Amino acid sequence: MKTIVLDAGHGGFDPGAVSGSRMEKNDNLALALAVQKKLQEQGQRVVMTRNTDVFVPLVERSVISNRNLADIFVSLHRNAFTNPAANGVETYVQTDSAPVNTAWARNVQNELVAAGVQSDRGVSQGDYSVLRHTRAPAMLVELGFITNARDNQLFDQKFDAYATAITRGILKSLGEPYYPPATLPPPTGDPVIASIQRTLNARYRTGLVPDGFAGPLTRRALIIGLQTELNNTYGAGLVVDGVLGPRTRAAIPTLRVGARGNIVWLLQAALYVRGYDPGTLDGIFGSATETAVRNFQRGSGLVVDGIAGPNTVSVLMGL
């Protein structure tokens, strides 16, 4: 299993290129989410720089990749030009980048071209912040011109084919097999999530199957753990039912750097399950946990302060 960071360009108050009512940020996010799903079906670990319509600073996107020790970083964009005749798909690597970057970018570009594009603009070099500050092999894909009607038509008509093409190109670059949907091997699950499930069973008797997949039962078990800790440590007197109701929300304490204990472990576990890696799940609220909280808050449109107060924890565990 490899770690792939997908970066949906722009977001929030930054729409990217705009053509009529069509905004680049929306196309980028839709495609990134589709690629994420396909890569996860292939058994890969995917980290998103954003999975909602929020603004993420350029340098922070690279920080997310570097902190997660990404094996590859792929930034997804749409192109634009004042002349509406400009068209085609191209992929960028950083100026003077290593040969592996160019080779891997060519894998993705070739797969997209094979899926069907108006024109092949090839692999080029450019000076982009997300490529310059990312340590993993990195590329920036410009999937057609949002200012060209035919490119937009192809983007919509071939949306699934383009998501598959990017998935195939990434896997080829990483030396990982691509399984057509009908031949996908049985899922193996995330070993960290399996460990979380075993710990929830041991501490809170939640009866989970430790399969490494964070479904509704695992999310409910996290709330059961939270309610148990609120009762044991804070005397909240809650009914332990796995439902994040008003009384449970009101009893949640404010957790910040320096906090310790099982309730911090539950915070860390919930962050990991939601795709925000807090580092070692040790029950200690350190800098890595603070960073994960900040990233979650940013991705969820919350105030970004790195403090896990009742509102942040409620949103984290309530979905």
Largest sheet: 6 strands, mixed
Strand content: 5-15%
Cα-to-Cα separation, first versus last residue: 26 Å
The value of Rg in angstroms is 21 Å
According to CATH, the homologous superfamily of the largest domain is Zn-dependent exopeptidases
CATH domain fold name of the largest domain: Aminopeptidase
Number of helices: 12
Highlighted features:
alpha/beta, Aminopeptidase, Muramoyl-pentapeptide Carboxypeptidase, domain 1, 319 residues, six-stranded mixed sheet
Can you give a write-up of this model?
With 319 residues, the chain is α/β, with parallel strands linked by helices. It has two domains: 3-183, 3-Layer(aba) Sandwich (Aminopeptidase); 191-318, Orthogonal Bundle (Muramoyl-pentapeptide Carboxypeptidase, domain 1), CATH 1.10.101.10. 46% of the residues lie in helices and 13% in strands. It contains twelve helices and eight strands. The strands form two sheets. The chain has a six-stranded mixed β-sheet, sandwiched between helices. Strand 6 (89-94), helix 3 and strand 7 form a beta-alpha-beta unit. Helix 7 packs across helix 8 (216-234). The chain is elongated and about 65 Å long. The model has no long low-confidence stretch (mean pLDDT 93).
